[in-house]
Amino acid sequence: MNKKITVGLFCLMMSSLYCKINAQNYQTLNVTSGYNADLIANGQGTAFSSTTESVDDPANGFVFMSTDFVNGQGVAPASGLPSAGLINSATTTGLPFQLAPYTANNALKLSDINDSGILNFSSNPKASKLFMLATTGSGSAVAEITVTFTDNTTQVFTSQSVSDWYGGSYFAIKGIGRTSRVTDDIENNINDPRLYEIALSISSANQVKNISNVSVKKTSADTGYLCVFGFSYQVAGNCITPDSLTTTNLTSNSATVSWSSIAGASSYEIYRSVSNTVPTAATTPTYTGITAPTKNLTGLSAATPYSVWVRSNCGGGSVSDWSFVLNFTTQCEPINAPYSENFDSATTIPLCTSVQTINTTGGNWDVSDATGVSDFSSNALYSITQTNPTNTWFYTPGINLQAGTTYTLSFDYSNYYQPGKFKVAYGTGASSALMTNIIQDYPNVNVGTITPASFTITPAATGVYYFGFNDYTPAVPLGIMLIDNIVLTVSNLSTSENQLSKNTVAVYPNPTSDYLNVRSKQKNAGIKIYDVSGKMVLSLDKAEQKIDVSQLMKGTYFLTLKNADGTSSTNKFIKK
Asked: Do 104 and 54 sit in the same domain of this protein?
């Protein structure tokens, strides 16, 4: 162990900088006990001689190093941890971390699942936020962090992910290189390894309490070695920051935001934004003078993501810090028929549609390129069933339907590998409980190729309705359900030649593979054919009774017939 820098000497050396830190709301915590490993090589000599363990697998034996490190061959690193141990976080401006002296144990290393340790501090501050400085070697890890207060109450933070020391986000410092205890070689790297900042929000009820100690337990069974290098905190002010933000009563243009009630707050303020940029103390609030811990936000835009922060106003110019962010997305406005979704421009579930997964251990709906699967030629909606049964719904947006009007719902479906089960329904909400109108049940889907389906419905009452597709396949070795080309249109009165009547159009056969016959009682002036995305794929200035559609790709199309009197009619057909 080499050149010793005491905490007192460090404070004297860095007095001007430390005073500047003290002027901020962030402070470091001095760990007095709990570290069990020296993971930072320093001074002159081999990496092995100035450390006790490695950050990663002992077979690799890599550790961090200080800028003053010179290995056994007399080689110094291009970069390293600051020799005085002070790190100013690259993630949170103004947040410092103070590493323990490099000449003794300076980290808590947890290797196996349920390994734990307690860190005690030289002071017992009140905090609104805690920040843990940590990393992992040989893979990521998950931690449970328990903050104990001087009144023996606790606040537990579960499932805190800590990234591997190479390549993770939210780092406090990066590009500090490493050295091996096995070979004594130095690796210089401008991007890695990294130490990460893990933010922990202290509840409003606990911000008035003094912190006694913090325990850290590794809860993951993976190979990552969890290494904790320190804690810092944001000082809790006399005006406490609200927490427990929730949103209810979401509509297309409003949302109700609620939070914890804060003793001593005379009112609350809200900052609302369509950006996730965190507000500062100087940011002008969107709403002020709120006297209850809830606020209904109105005048919002439909289908729009919003970010909201709340702070307390304790009077006399005293306000709290802004809370952690609350994110929500407003609902979509109902749409009118015709509606179509072919998933070709989607990489995930399209905006304004939704998924309800009832059996969370089974499959769920998603979107992927299905080209070559069951004769699909582009993206499709799919769900996969394997060792657990599937029960998942996909819902369309809300669609305005009129009582007594007949609508046609069409779609393509198929399965892959083992047979599956699904049903189609509609109802007054995007919820399985509201899917009260079963359109069709498919208890044994074993078609293997893309198969068109078409049904008519006539709602009894005018309103907003959602169409749902429910995959309820039992556990199988492997089964894939696929849905594509969902189309809802107002039905025409006729779909075959012998159904032709005045002012109606017949388009047949439907589905078709080669030719489409078109018959109309009116004199017509032209025909245009569109795909489900609205792109025109065929145009005929002279209306023909027999149209060659053999060159069209398989799928759903709309044929618009322009009449001589200026009117037009649209019919849907399927090219197989």
From this structure: yes
Query: Phi, psi at residue 424, to the nearest 5°?
Result: -120, 135
Residue with tokens 């961090």: 64
Q: Are residues 198 and 183 in the same domain?
A: yes
Q: What is the dihedral of CA 278, 280, 286, 289, to 10 degrees?
A: 130
Q: What is the pLDDT of residue 504?
A: 57
Note whether 286 and 217 are same-domain residues.
no
3-state secondary structure 92-133: CCCCEEECCCCCCCCEEEECCCCCEEEEEECCCCCEEEEEEE
Domain-ending residue, one of 185, 202, 235: 235
Q: Could you tell me the maximum CA-CA distance found in the chain, to the nearest angstrom?
A: 100
Contact of 254 with 297, CB cutoff 8 Å: yes
Q: Are strands 62-65 and 40-41 parallel, antiparallel or unpaired?
A: parallel
pLDDT of residue 101: 97
At residue 22, the 3 state secondary structure works out as helix
Query: Residue 227, class by beta-carbon neighbours within 10 Å (0-12 exposed, 13-18 middle, 19+ buried)?
Result: buried
Q: What is the pLDDT of residue 531?
A: 77
The pLDDT value given to residue 532: 66
Q: Does residue 455 contact residue 461 with C-beta atoms inside 8 Å?
A: no
For 273-317, the pLDDT digits (tens) are 999 999 999 999 999 999 999 999 999 998 899 999 999 999 999
Residue type (1 letter), 412: D
Q: How far apart are CA 83 and CA 571, in angstroms?
A: 76
Last residue of a domain, one of 490, 512, 542: 490
| 494 alpha carbon, distance to own chain's centre | 47
Which of 200, 98, 197, 215 shows the shortest CA–CA distance to 149? 215
pLDDT single digits (tens) 5-50: 333 333 333 333 333 333 348 999 999 999 999 999 999 999 999 9
Give me the amino acid identity at 326: L
Map residue 433 onto helix, strand or coil: helix
How many domains does the chain fold into?
4
Question: Which residues in the chain show pLDDT less than 70?
Answer: 1-24, 492-504, 521, 532-534, 542-544, 566-568
> For residue 543, what pLDDT is reported?
62
Domain that holds residue 565: 497-575
* Burial tier of 519 (Cβ tally within 10 Å: 0-12, 13-18, 19+): middle
Residue 278, domain CATH: 2.60.40.10
Is the Cβ–Cβ distance between 436 and 425 less than 8 Å? Answer: yes
User: What confidence score (pLDDT) does residue 566 get?
Assistant: 66
Angle at 265 between CA 259 and CA 269, to 5 degrees: 60
Residue type (1 letter), 281: A
Strands (E), 138-210: 141-149, 154-162, 171-174, 178-180, 186-187, 194-201
Q: Is 395 found in the same domain as 284?
A: no
CB-CB neighbours of 13 under 10 Å: 13
Give the integer Cα–Cα distance in Å for 55 and 228.
10
- Say which residues have a Cβ less than 8 Å from residue 323's Cβ, sequence separation at least 6: 241, 242, 243, 245, 259, 309, 310, 311
